[in-house]
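Hello,

I think I submitted the EPU job twice by accident. Can you confirm which output corresponds to this input? Input:
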Amino acid sequence: MDKFIITGGKELHGEITVSGAKNAAVAILAASILCDGTCRIENLPNISDVSAIIKVLYQLGANIKYINKTTVEIDSTGITTFTVPYTMTKSTRASSYFMGAMLGRFKRANIAPSGGCDFGVRPIDMHLKGFESLGAKHNIRNGMVELEADFLVGAPIYLDVVSVGATINIILAAVKASGLTIIENAAREPHIVDVANFLNSMGADIRGAGTDTIKIHGVQKLNGTTYSIIPDQIEAGTYMVAAAATGGDVLIKNVIPKHLESISAKLEEAGATVIEYDDSVRVQRNKPLRGCHVKTMPHPGFPTDMQPQMTALLAGAEGSSTVRESVWDNRFRYVEQLNHMKARITVDGRTAYIEGVHPLQGAPVKACDLRAGAAVVIAALMAQGTTEIDNIHFIERGYEDIVEKLTAVGADIRRVSVVSPSGAQVDVIS
Ligand code: EPU
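Support: Only one job matched these inputs. Its output is below.
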């Protein structure tokens, strides 16, 4: 029942520090079960997707020690089961990483289907193709994916579709297989490099992560490690778009500017200025936003996870824009919410056609999923008047302290908890 209430039309000015990368963190947490010893993982984002995976590790029998808000120690010696039931997997897509991690550790895995954002069909055929190449048989029984191998033996694996999840899952299953695995047409996202670096810090031998050919020489044993997660590319990009959308001037700290190049380029086309420093970027805009054309692609292309936020910005820009989604089948469900705010967007298949409207108008809307939620936050920051956003639990899956971070740069955003189902009593939290 919690909501965000945002009064828009204010430029954002100041500094925002980006948290650790969600999509690296969730994979690294699952990967921690592959080692004999304790993993100390630092720079974890404090978000519900990460808590969900830590909870699964705890329920499976791992010993979890929180050192502080962003650091956790995991000793998974106590895990003796290779079954992860639906009660543990339903809240996040990342629980699918237990397929590769359990297979790598026990040569067996029984994993229930994963939850996560709904963008249409989310197949796992590439994951299963990879496991099969390594020698694992699979069976889908009562919705559970059952995997079993006598031996895991390295093999060449060509991915017909560039898949982040399949690339990581195959690495997890192959890291302790005997011999050499070569993944061709691998995904190249920054979080894949981070997972490989984490595993290498435990003694794995993975080369080529960040290119489309990844070579994994299997090792017999992985040891405990201390590892710090990279900054979140998409959280950084979201605040870059927010700064540009409101015509502000924001220094976004703790980023890897190289990871943000495709986002910086599009923001500059749309009328913003982006200045790169060693580990921060400054986004300014003092001229009108103008429409442009965006097409999402696997890394290093424009990220699909920035598509809704960029569409929100372009909804308030001068002129016409198009946004083409080429990763997911159905990632425009949120457009209806932007149109409630007087945006003029039509969707035909995988393309959104946008006629810019200035200003957008505040309205009651909802977050349809994580990045869709970020898009309505950006639209609300640009809009005239007040916007109430429902379903904010989706947003909190991936954005740590979003209210505090936006408030610090001058946004008028509050999180309210509606205590009574009738809506009569409202308790302001922050
Ligand atoms: N695909 C297949 N077969 C497979 C796997 C994927 O056809 O076996 C297709 C999918 O249907 C999709 C495309 O390949 O069309 C890409 O899917 P991918 O496997 O790369 O996505 P994912 O691993 O399920 C991760 C992120 C998503 C992000 C995508 C694409 C995590 C936990 N999730 O999902 O992040 O959109 O990669 O970059 O890493 C988000 O953070 O908001 C989010 C949804």
